[in-house]
Amino acid sequence: MIFHDEPIPGEMLPVLAGHSSAGRLERVLRAGHFAVTSELSPPDSADPQEVYVRARVFDGFVDGMNATDGSGANCHMSSVGMCALLTRIGYAPIMQISCRDKNRIAIQGDVLGGAAMGVSNMLCLTGDGVQAGDHPEAKPVFDLDCMSLLETIRNMRDKGEFLSGRSISSPPKVFLGAASNPFAPPYDFRPHRLAKKIAAGAQFIQSNYCFDVPRFKEFMARSRDLGLLEKVFILPGVGPMASAKTANWIRNNVPGIHIPDSVISRIGGAKDQKREGQNLCVELIQELSEIEGVSGIHVMAYRQEEAVADIIKRSGVLQGRTPWYPGRDLKLAGE
Amino acid sequence: MYKVRRWAVRHSHFFETFYNVFEKALVKLHPLLLKIGYARLDKPVAKLEQLCKGLLFDCKMCGQCALSDTGMSCSMNCPKNLRNGPCGGVRQNGNCEVKPLMRCVWMDAWQGSQTMAASDRIFAVQLPVNHALQGSSAWLRKVRDVVQQQHEPTPK
Question: Does B95 map to a domain?
Answer without folding.
Answer: yes
